[in-house]
Write a structure and sequence with these properties.
Blueprint (H helix, E strand, L loop, with lengths): L1 E21 L5 E21 L4 E16 L19 E11 L4 E10 L15 E13 L2 E8 L6 E5 L3 E4 L2 E2 L1
Antiparallel strand pairs: 1-2, 2-3, 3-4, 4-5, 5-6, 6-7, 7-10, 8-9
InterPro entries: Beta-barrel_TonB (IPR000531), Beta-barrel_TonB_sf (IPR036942), TonB-dep_rcpt-like (IPR039426)
GO molecular function, one term: siderophore uptake transmembrane transporter activity
Membrane topology: Multi-pass membrane protein
Length: 173
Amino acid sequence: MNALFSAAIYDLNKEDVTIAVVQDNGTIERETIGESRVRGLDLEAKAELTPNLSLTGGYSYLDSEVVRGTLRDGTSLEGKEFTVAPEHTASLWTYYSFPSLDMSVGLGARYIGSYYFDADNTSESDAATLFDAAFTYAIAEGIDLGVNVRNLLDEQHVVGSGTSNYYCFAARG
């Protein structure tokens, strides 16, 4: 089988990290916290199941933590998770090539686990699974036409928060 498997394990520490913090009046200010740590695992697999069918998958686990840090207002962030950093993410893609037609199609799914919107970990997003599609056609030697569709089912979910919530919609093109 033509395949590639990879894994990475990491434990990273950093001091004097600057983060964005939403103030009570709605403004966003940059504040420096003392020390942070990120531990994680990344797994990826790519396999050519047949000459025309391939599969790609990935999974990431991220354990983020403020080891030492206090906001200007005195709020301790010790033990809190990073904002907008989901603990679990995963993706799975499959591609099929039609060699006699010089085209290929792909379908994929992305999972984004829940994450916190604020440094104090009081506001949390929902987890989301999104589906994507791709189409490629070889117009001429070395020239391909490609169309990618993200969020195929047009799911709406909150992807960030600060002074306001904003949403992810399908981006076609």
